[in-house]
Amino acid sequence: MILTEKLIRDHTLAREEYARLLEASGDPEVRSMLSREAVRLRKLYYGDKVFTRGLIEFTNYCKNNCYYCGIRCQNPHAKRYRLNREEILDCCENGYGLGFRTFVLQGGEDPFFTDERMTEIIREIKTRYPDCALTLSIGERSFESYRRFRVAGADRYLLRHETADEAHYRKLHPENLTLANRKRCLRDLKALGYQVGAGFMVGSPGQTSAELAEDLCFLEELQPEMVGIGPFIPHHETPFAEAEAGSVDLTLFLLSVIRILLPKVLLPATTALGTLDPQGREKGLLAGANVVMPNLSPVKNRKQYDLYDNKICTGEEAAECRECLARRVESVGYRLVTERGDAVS
User: Fold this and answer.
1) Which positions ≥6 away from 37 have C-beta within 8 Å?
2) Beta bridge partner(s), residue 268
3) Where in the sequence is the domain holding 134, given as residue range(s)?
4) Disulfide-capable partner of 17 in 13, 109, 145, 314 (CB 3.0 to 4.6 Å)?
5) For the segment 160-185, what is each residue's pLDDT rounded down to a tens digit?
6) Is residue 344 one of the residues assigned to a domain?
7) Strands across the sheet with 156-158, in order?
8) What is the CATH number of the domain that holds 244?
């Protein structure tokens, strides 16, 4: 309880204190205190607004072989696809008509989408929809690539660090990927003026409270504008197919902790939460989240963007998905708004 009060008062803890706090995550009184404070802070800075991000999963090709991911390059059964420029723009047109004012271009690290192709797509979207924010989530690139995307008009960049602990990172990734480069990318993005999103899986194989404490310390150091966390969910075509899924309750606990640590952060109630718990996204909002990310991708491709098993909302048209989310958001006392939804400064 002393650590809970200290976090609420100071908005920070030492690494070993975060680890001890996480060990108390099952205590109902601790959970209640943190969620109440998290909700107070999100209402202080964002009122009852929940922001939408129109997610466009435009390629499931990926050159990487991350051990937890269903679209890793060594999954021979993945049905690969790429949206062309016009298909991406059609998704934006549909989303704009439905009230979306942020588009998120998300994909695997697909060499087909060169800097030239990406900058052309970015410029076209920003020309057609100058009142919209454009977020990229396309993995690790060079400083120069990120600079070109920024000049072309990209506003935000999502790059989950997945784990800030070196030893744990090695358990989840092949040797050609390094935590040092992941962190370099995030710092480059900050330096270039993007609104930056980091984040991690909760309950990934072998994860400890000490490693989650390291994640919280890294977020405090980085000061991202967005943090995306969700429970680990295994995929049947990965080395972790038989691993246990992450905990919804621990994810909700961490959402509250992150809201208190970074009071002005944009914090999604993720699809992964909704996949493991039918009320997961609503519970996320009640734990301090203030963003949801409906899918604008063509229905024919959604099941192919298969990061983990049993992903929800793969069969709904975008309009159905948005209306469903609006009702869910209203059911817990918030409202879905038509705004860019930038982080408050």
Assistant:
1) 8, 256, 259, 260
2) 291
3) 2-337
4) 13
5) 999 999 999 999 999 999 999 999 99
6) no
7) 54-59, 102-107, 133-137, 156-158, 195-202, 226-231
8) 3.20.20.70
